[in-house]
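User: Structure tokens for both sequences below?

Assistant:
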Amino acid sequence: MVLEFLKYAYFNITKGDDMNDILSKCANKAYMDLCRTIKFKTVDGNIKAEYKAKICDMLVNEYNALCNAVNACSSENEEQEIFDNEHNRICEEIIKTYSEISDFTYGQAQKWLNMMLKYVLLIEEDSVLKSYLHIPVDSYIMQAVGSNNPKLKYCLKLECVPKKSGTVGKYSESTSKPWSKWNYEEYIAFQDSIRTAIAESDYNSPIEWENEAWIEVAEYRK
């Protein structure tokens, strides 16, 4: 009963919703995690709503494509590579479409796709994509990855956070490049660094670590 209440309260998901309904609601919810960073070229609310719906509809279809692509692979390494390629293709499609009404970046596209996939995982915990999911990048995760703060036990303490200067290093609120301005090269290098660190840990997947690390930073920042 509690789970059904939370699904409705947070995602507006009801017992009568099928998988496509769930995917659509997760995509719409994910939009809220990046919308404040978007610089629109229009003030027309109807146009904004139209393009948001376009992306959400696309993400519903692409979720199934991601699952099918992974299921068709013969090895775990191949599955991750295929997932990464499909993930990049989807992000580029989001950018291509949304750039018609805004200055849209790879950092924003990854947030939309990654948060949608994370929300689906919260509801469908046995998703075949779980092991391959990317970490949704925001300032909390940047801090969790690149901070030496002794109060944050889940910090990876890596020097891989993109900086405004064009280099990488530890996380700094003043010198780190905002995630919403990242390009693909910065993004995938960041993800690869996390994967390498997690592979040497007790976590089964990066997204498993992300859940604990993000909450810890959120609590610390209160």
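Moving on to the next sequence.
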Amino acid sequence: MHSTSSIINNKYLLDIYYNGLARKSEWESVIADDFQFIGGDMTNRKPIIGKQAYIDVIGRFSRLFTSMRVKEMFVHDQHAFVLAEYDYVFPNGKSLSGEVAEYWLIKNHALAGLTIYFDTLTFYEWTSSLHIVMRYHEAWTNKAYQEAAAYLADPLIVIAPIQEYPDKTSYIQAVAQKYNLIRKVDLIGSFNHGDECMLLYDMDIQEFGNLRVAEYFKVKNGKIVQICQVHDTMPFRKA
């Protein structure tokens, strides 16, 4: 038989944690020094161990979510289940809400362990390098230049065969001008490894005909920080 006071005390610890997490401050006091966390990478179930290591995890995570709320909480002796909902805003300005199932272990008047479960596919699709690059590509080919610019970091490094672009603004302006000459863009392939991506596509350009372009991207913190374009320059030099 488990005491009611134990359940109340454990719920009190969770209330301190979640109230502090919602404010992004003053939640650390209830975390055990030997805290174990599982779930940052759903493909790797090896725990992250230690209070400071978990503080670092939350430090990174808190940059993504704007608000959170507890939808359900069940406490039984040393165990608790919490269904929480987080509102995310990604560096490119896109936002979504998602539920996270959080299973807690509570020992010696402290939160001793946490295992989380969430929709990894949705989260990956919104944070992966290839998703960001593809959304950028779709934006500029649909003449949504302001949306395209939101996926680009500032400063932005652009390496192109002919022109030089000293900053993000000059590059987006050039993209907008160039599209006036482009009749069609056909994406051939997309490739991704970590924070690096490559797109291969054909552009049908007025007065120049078909041009195949290989475009390399480097993504950091949810935004494109470098673009390198490779294509045949002869048609432009002849013009």
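User: Anything stand out in the second?

Assistant: The chain has two domains: 4-125, 128-238.
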